Amino acid sequence: MRVLEQAAPLAYQESYDNAGLQCGNPQLEVKGVLIALDCTPAVVDEALAKGCNVVVAHHPLIFKPLKRLTGANEVEQTLLKAIKHDIALYAAHTNLDNVRHGVNRKLADKLGLQNLRILDPKFGTLGKLVTYVPPTHTDAVLQALYDAGAGQVGNYSQCSFRMDGTGTYTPSADTNPFQGTPGQPETAQEQRVEVLLPLHLQGAALRALRQAHPYEEVAYELIKLENVHQDVGSGMVGELPEPLPPQEFRARLRAALGVPVVKYTEFAQPIKTVALCGGAGSFLTGKARAAGAQAYVTGDLKYHEYFAAEGQLMLCDVGHYESEQFTSEIFRDLLTSAFTRKFAVLIAETLTNPVRYDF
């Protein structure tokens, strides 16, 4: 769970979502992990057959609140089977959609896009942590904050700002000051240190600050920012190596995703800039147009939503499952790199896509 949530923090899931551990003991000893896009009774059966006691899925099995657990539908049947056989179920859904190296990055890589950026970055997920440190301890305090996840700006790490100044204080009789005498006013040369911080990491950052700082009482300010987070948000946009005629681009889509059909809107211009969103992404059509995309690739478009293209780009519906089918590779790579030879990490062979095609 720590590995998965470091890559896709639960704080980044949408308000309607239900990512995380859905059933099972978090202290369960892992014997094997089966990865699937969806968790169904057949997936649990496959986990049992292969000796896996953890199923990691993209879509949460428990998405809406359960009022009873009687096996009346497939969700309840799946859950009962998992509980009966002591199989833990874990889901990483919109939190994995909303990180830079998540679902949309995988789809963009399959299409060979370059110069990638988040299509709709999130606001309000960042803060600025300010503290005051004696110059002899600035580097140690900053390193502790970096280790806790602070100081990352896009592809730049260990970013900070520092400024020299003078601090004043009077220690009480009950103190053991780093510098100065109890009861006597004191001035100290200090550095004001500022770092950018994802707000969901503030607890870890403040613990690291207190442990590394030499003062008994650590002065700090934590300020919520309205800046966009460049690495967190919905969708992705990038460029093809070379412009393609629309028909050739659709052929590229079918080949890269292995899809039998692409539903699309008419568009005559060459395709160079491509926006995309795995799953149901009609809510980002306007963002795709604003980003200058000539094509927007997603799934689950309804009839009237195709009109939103307004002739300014080609809307391409490749299907919900089809646009997220490579998510299992993300889970596999994360877990196999973190737990080499500890336990089996397998991608399910069970096809969970409920959609079939006739030609």
Helices and strands in order, then pairings?
Elements: H1 2-7, E1 20-23, E2 32-36, H2 41-49, E3 54-57, H3 74-84, E4 88-91, H4 94-97, H5 103-111, E5 114-123, E6 126-133, H6 138-147, E7 161-169, E8 186-198, H7 202-212, E9 220-224, E10 228-244, H8 246-257, E11 263-264, E12 271-280, H9 285-290, E13 295-299, E14 314-317, H10 320-324, H11 327-338, E15 344-347
Parallel strand pairs: 2-3, 2-15, 3-4, 12-13, 13-14
Antiparallel strand pairs: 1-4, 5-10, 6-8, 6-9, 7-8, 10-12, 11-14
3D architecture notes:
Helix content is about 25%, strand content about 30%. The protein contains 11 helices and 15 strands. The longest helix is centred in the C-terminal third of the chain and has 12 residues, at about 245-255.
Structural class: alpha/beta
Alpha-carbon distance between the termini? 42 Å
**Amount of helix:** 25-40%
The radius of gyration computed from the alpha-carbon positions, rounded to a whole number of angstroms, is 25 Å
- What is the arithmetic mean of pLDDT? 97
Q: Tell me the β content.
A: 25-35%
Shape: globular
Regions with little confidence, pLDDT below 50 for 5+ residues: none
**What summary fits the major beta sheet?**
6 strands, mixed
Summarize it.
With 359 residues, the protein is of the alpha/beta class.
Features:
359 residues, alpha/beta, 5-stranded mixed β-sheet
